[in-house]
């Protein structure tokens, strides 16, 4: 909070549809500069708060996001942490759930809101969803409880009137305004006439600003194998046993079931014996992995596969990047995969 009692927000623009305009030459959407976004949402000027902005260079379509962008965001938030009450990150929707998940792990001891948002239609278009998303995100980032603490001290995604925990959200619709869902965790807030916070779900923060610790080490030696009928031993072996891979996320069927043929379990056992970390998450949008339910799931546990419970693939991937990037031993990583570090798992 500034000296005059006004809230202060840092708006970080990384790219994405929200700020894109049609490039007449190629007739495709490309990111444009931030001043245009601000002029498209003059309502922001009605808030009694200071809104500063930071524009990344180059602005990108989020399909091009690399972990280096997450490191840049974590460093920026940490450097400017004391100056602002909250942070709003404008980001493309395609990989927003990955970035929000990653930041949730990289920012330990977070006591202020970090709200990712974007839009399905550019902010300059008459029917844009970008204006509402941006304005409500700024309001949420500045919101404080009666005791002066941030209402939502978490990394979140705000989209289409709904505030979701970032590491629980996933992009579920390529065209509708409701692009994101959080199937295994209720919304943290819903925006109607007023913004209604779901305080029983929002994580409590009782520490101090000085508690923020950033972890920028990320080890990306993780592969993801989505099971499907017709998967061949050659492809499975390539994705699971490549020597450059240290952890594998298996996107399995239903409650964590996989191919029970010996060629598949042999590959898993070989990878596990070689020290690889194998994590089981479900291809289903909602629900959780339970490897005790069916023989096929039990066979995976017997091969050393650990349960990712009800984590999204996005959260599991970035959690592994983070835990491996901290240089922790494999056994500790395996234990922590099943522990909720930032509310990413219902345990
Ligand atoms: N391709 C765009 C991006 O992720 C889509 C969007 O922003 O909605 O950057």
Describe the structure.
This protein is an alpha/beta fold and 347 residues long. Helices cover 27% and strands 23% of the residues. The chain contains nine helices and 18 strands. It has helices at residues 34-40, 67-79, 96-106, 130-142, 233-241, 262-273, 295-302, 313-325, 330-337; strands at residues 7-15, 20-23, 28-31, 49-60, 86-90, 107-108, 114-117, 155-159, 162-165, 170-171, 180-181, 189-191, 195-197, 213-214, 222-226, 247-252, 277-282, 306-307. Helix 2 (67-79) crosses helix 3 (96-106), helix 5 runs parallel beside helix 6 (262-273) and helix 8 (313-325) packs antiparallel against helix 9 (330-337). The chain starts with 6 loop residues before the first strand and ends in a 10-residue tail after the last helix. The protein binds aspartic acid.
SSE layout and pairing:
Layout: E1 7-15, E2 20-23, E3 28-31, H1 34-40, E4 49-60, H2 67-79, E5 86-90, H3 96-106, E6 107-108, E7 114-117, H4 130-142, E8 155-159, E9 162-165, E10 170-171, E11 180-181, E12 189-191, E13 195-197, E14 213-214, E15 222-226, H5 233-241, E16 247-252, H6 262-273, E17 277-282, H7 295-302, E18 306-307, H8 313-325, H9 330-337
Parallel strand pairs: 1-4, 1-5, 5-7, 7-8, 15-16, 16-17, 17-18
Antiparallel strand pairs: 2-3, 6-14, 8-9, 9-12, 10-11, 12-13
The structure holds aspartic acid.
Aspartic acid binds next to loops.
- Spatial shape: globular
**Rounded mean pLDDT score:** 94
- Cα-atom radius of gyration: 21 Å
Main sheet makeup: 8 strands, mixed
Quaternary structure state of the chains depicted: single chain
Number of strands: 18
